[in-house]
Structures are given as C-alpha cells and as structure tokens.
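User: My instructor asked us to take a sequence, write out its structure as tokens, and then describe one feature of it. I'm not sure where to start. Here is the sequence I was given:
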Amino acid sequence: MDYTILYDQLTRDLLKNFDLFSLFAGRMIWPNGYLGPDAYGYERGWRTIFPSPSRNRWITEEQGAAVKDFVMAGGGFYSLHNNSHVSLSSKNYREVMGGAYIGPSGA
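Assistant: Let's start with the prediction itself. The structure tokens for your sequence are:
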C-alpha cells in the first residue's frame, strides 16, 4: 500500500501499478491555508490581518480520465468521506462516481 498527499501527481502511469485506488479528498484545496469564520478570533476582527481563504479545485479532466480508464480496465476504486465533491470538477470522474454530492439533505 502507498499513501500520498501529492494530488497533482495522480496520473495513468501512477495508477497502472496498483489494483485498488482509494481517494480520501474533497474537491477543494487551500494553497495559501484556510482560516474561516469558525476560527477563534476571526469574528473579533482578526480577519484583517490574515489573507482571505482562496480555494481551488484540484482534479483536472485528465486526472479524472486516468481514474475512469483505471476503473474501466478492471481496477478497484474506493471513494471515502466527502470525495464525491470531486465529481463537480471533472465529468470523467463524475461518470465513475455515478453522480455528485452538492450538499447535505435539507440544505
């Protein structure tokens, strides 16, 4: 088993060495860190001394295609936690997942 947080290195070449791919990642990354309204002191005006959070979607369509090709070739895939959010960023990945999570029920 291998584990990595290097999401930008997800490729067809990487996946071909495995029988099972498991992904435990949401759709967003925070390249400059995250400090949101739930952080202590944020509501007290500290937000002026910290940069505003900037989020990016991490998966590319090419990476989504790599996952799709891996699964179509018989590779196992196990999606964990809120990983179906990734489907919002890649049509290929969404086809593997069979849908996308857009928020909690009742929202």
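For the description part of your assignment, you could build on this observation: The mean pLDDT is 80. Try explaining in your own words what that tells you about the chain.
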